[in-house]
Amino acid sequence: MKRIALAFSLLCMIMLAAPFASANRAEIIINGSTTLLPVMQQAGEAFMAENPDVTLALSGGGSGNGINALNEALCHIAMSSRDVKPSEVEKARIKGVAFVKIPVAIDALVPIVHRDNPVQNLTVEQLRDIYAGKITRWSEVGGRDENIVVISRDTSSGTYEVWDQFVMKKVRVAPRALLLTS
To answer: CB–CB of 27/57 below 8 Å?
Structure first.
């Protein structure tokens, strides 16, 4: 069922992008969320196999980058793992871009620890303190006396923005956090 839904969503996006295609061969540029990129790569390969006259050019870079690229006419479709911001909608309106949202998945942010780590539950406040650099050792939250290695996303990522909104609540992620870029 998921494959059908993804293929249908991709087909809808392709149809929306049809005005950008040439008469003989269509190239549709899709940019944005690295969270959605692997899913769109698989759906895109299946779509191109069935539609050899259509080439999809997929790239990541983050939800904000995709929405900005759409607003600047650098892509035909923007992938986003977050909702469009009012400022982005206003910029689109000024540039004559109309957003059409097509949900392809519902995702979740799930903090993980190594399976050998005895810490099983953390509160949102503890997560915030870990990412802010206030808690730096597992022993501070019921684990072993070992350093915590924090991995975060780039600030252009929709995932980062959702984490910032619901966990960090505008508290800055500590500079020691390692960045996960894909």
So the answer is: yes
